[in-house]
Design a protein that fits this description.
The protein is built from five helices and two strands. The protein is an all-alpha fold.
């Protein structure tokens, strides 16, 4: 039986229910229509991601033996929040001139390396940067090809 005194577990259960509701109601719209995405694709993906993340959070909360296992130790949360806000502000400010593709990859590498453990080995940092670059490319292709969203191209005005 889950420990309801844990507010994270209670919030995860609420998110699980919200994810199920969003997923359920997104099926009433067309997910795919002809060769392009329909109006129900974004709620379907959002509901699915909320459902998966809350299920993982519930699973990790149940497996934790004490409340100390749930706490993340290391850097202060204020520093991480400041890094995220500053990088998002730079992304928005430079997206038109540099292009969203290039700005997103630079932002993800900077945030990934700043949030990584300082004792991380060099090859792990290279692996982290390559995963973030691949994620940026896949995300850009997803928005331009699958969702047909015109993104700012900036200095990289290649036809994607």
């Amino acid at each position: 039986m889950p420990n309801i005194k844990n507010p994270e577990l209670l919030f995860s259960f609420c998110l699980l229910i919200a994810g199920l509701l969003i997923l359920h109601y997104s099926l009433f719209y067309f997910i795919l229509s002809d060769d392009e995405s329909g109006p129900g694709i974004f709620p379907f993906i959002s509901g699915l991601l909320i459902l998966i993340s809350s299920a993982v959070n519930i699973w990790s909360s149940w497996r934790a033996t004490s409340s100390e296992d749930l706490n993340i130790e290391g850097r202060s949360d204020i520093g991480l929040i400041a890094i995220m806000v500053a990088s998002l502000m730079c992304l928005v400010a430079m997206a038109e001139s540099l292009g969203l593709f290039l700005c997103t990859i630079i932002m993800m590498i900077v945030v990934g390396i700043c949030c990584a453990d300082k004792k991380m080995r060099f090859y792990r940092k290279i692996w982290l940067a390559s995963v973030l670059i691949i994620f940026g490319v896949v995300t850009h292709l997803f928005f331009t090809w699958f969702l047909n969203v015109p993104l700012p191209k900036g200095i990289l005005a290649f036809p994607v």
